[in-house]
Known about the structure:
Blueprint: H1 13-21, E1 38-43, E2 49-53, E3 62-68, E4 82-88, H2 89-98, E5 100-105, H3 123-140, H4 153-168, H5 173-192, E6 200-207, H6 213-218, E7 226-232, H7 233-239, E8 246-250, E9 252-254, E10 269-271, E11 279-285, E12 294-298, H8 301-304, E13 307-310, H9 316-328, E14 334-337
Helix pairs in contact: 3-4, 3-5
Bound molecules: zinc ion (ZN).
Amino acid sequence: MTELPKMTLRFSRELKIFLNENHDNCTSCGNHFQNNELTHLGYKADNSFIYACNSCRHNVAETVVRYGYSKRSYEIPPNEAYLWRYLDFSKFVSMLFKKALYFTKTSLFKDPFEGAIGIFDNKKSYDRSMLFALLVAHMTAPINGREALPPSKEITDEALAILDRIDKNTLSADDEKLVAKAQALSQQMEDVRPLRREYTFVNCWHENPYESDAMWMLYSKDISNAISIRTTYQRLYLALDKDPDISIGRINYIDFNKSFSGTNSTQWYKRFSFAHEKEVRAVFLNPNYKEQPGIEFPVDLDILIDKIYVSPSADNWFVDLVKDITSKYGLDKEILHSDLAKKPLY
Length: 346
Ligand SMILES: [Zn+2]
């Protein structure tokens, strides 16, 4: 086995962007990474970036991080996918004035399941699966000079057998030590889990090739004075300056009676009853901001805004007002009266 290249922590913003944009594939051979596969992020001899699979690691001259690949919990929409934000006129003007997108803290959203793992009635089953995962983690961890072990079938079978011995009250003394460690960690995680809602900040969009009548009704307090901004996934990503600390993706709609959201990915799951929102969200997590109700991220509005639509129930004078204000803020954008306002031909 050849020696691994030296490890540094030269983690620049550009390298983070490179990692985000090449998250799933080896940049040397193009192979798609498998879950838990060892990956190597760093620099080639010519100082260009590389994110390599284990077979291509000889191309890495300087490693910044090595880690086990895990698939993202969310899908990224295609670059050209249309995203809409329906908002009141006052919020629209505030956006023009501040040249920023407002990210709201998830604990302030109306949906109480925002940031939830699942439904409370299923707590026992969640705790059991968490205990299983932590037992496996302890049994494979690199401790006492031993290298990290892969989670083999023998190890996962043994973890299941331990759970069985807990139920039957037949744990050995060694089992008990291991279970106590795993349970203590599980309890610590349970204690901090709800805090994630306090430092997860989200900016929501609706993905749709067309305008949505339902969204006009839902997301404007006064529909006759409402606006919808149309952007695309790529415009949103570029307008936020490719910020590598912001993730943009589609919400997964699931049945919480049957499944759980991931422990570290609750922000990407909602109940099926919200599926009509077809939500794409930009997410920022950082405990340093937990005292704030929200964060404004500066955006280049000229990049962000593709077109501006004015509510179907707005009068013509209001459409003119939107045009006037938008141009006063120096934006040269097409402003359309909603397609839904067009007269039918019978
Ligand atoms: Zn490769």
